[in-house]
Amino acid sequence: MRYKKYIQANEEEPIDNSTAKVILQAATELFMRQGYHSVTMRDIASHANVNLGLLPYHFTSKENLAKHVYLGLMDRIYRQIGTIDMSRVSNAEKIYITTLLSWKYVENSEEYSKFFYEFYESAGPFETPSKLFIQMSSTVILEHGLQIGREENELYFTVMKGAEWLLIQKRYKKEIQITLEEMLNILYSNYLYNIGLSDKIIAETIQNSLNFLKSLET
């Protein structure tokens, strides 16, 4: 699978080398300023004031380095979303709300969106679920007593992410007219159905999530 080409693809393994941190910070600044495509490894080395050979030593490739930037930015977004009081919503609703808010955060930031969409198109869908998704989805499975194991859950996640990648690209390129809410309704309802939730619960989950998001705007 695609993720196996990353030697540092595990989100649970933080970068603790000082040189790697300097490189990662430089890459983040340049990607935010110029997007993904126009930035070269040489540009990043120059901005970080390090030898060019240290970049492949620590990150193997531009794509792998950009993946770490991507994950770092998503962590930053999730931390901001985490400050919202979601004690009144179910775990299934939390996934919907968190996903939609993260999409909107990216889309409303010119520097984030340029990098995210360019890198997303180049790298393709990630097949490894985020730590946050596994935690939240596992709670949903336990909460509803669903008979589904971790491997099967990750399989349905992979299917969802593949469809998400395609829809996000088509929406960004204006090849289809679809709102973020409509897109998430399609993706998330299919995922919840695959893991075993009924249509009634799925409909309630989506409607309650949208009602909660609407309440944040008032």
Chain-wise SSE layout:
Layout: H1 18-34, H2 41-48, H3 54-59, H4 62-81, H5 91-107, H6 110-123, H7 131-143, H8 150-172, H9 180-195, H10 199-217
Helix pairs in contact: 1-2, 1-4, 1-6, 4-5, 4-6, 5-7, 5-9, 5-10, 8-9, 9-10
Q: What is the approximate shape?
A: elongated
Helix fraction, binned, reads over 70%
> Order of SSEs, N→C?
HHHHHHHHHH
* Largest β sheet strand count, sense and barrel closure: none
**Number of DSSP strands?**
0
Query: Stretches where pLDDT falls below 50 for ≥5 residues?
Result: 1-14
Oligomer: single chain
Distance between the ends: 44 Å
Radius of gyration: 18 Å
Q: What's the overall average pLDDT, rounded?
A: 88
Structure description:
With 218 residues, the protein is mainly α. It folds into 2 domains: 65 residues, Arc Repressor Mutant, subunit A (Orthogonal Bundle); 134 residues, no CATH class. Helices cover 70% and strands 0% of the residues. It is elongated. The N terminus is likely disordered. Keywords: DNA-binding, Transcription, Transcription regulation.
In short:
This protein has 218 residues and is mainly α.
Notable characteristics:
218 residues; mainly alpha; Arc Repressor Mutant, subunit A; 10 helices; disordered N terminus
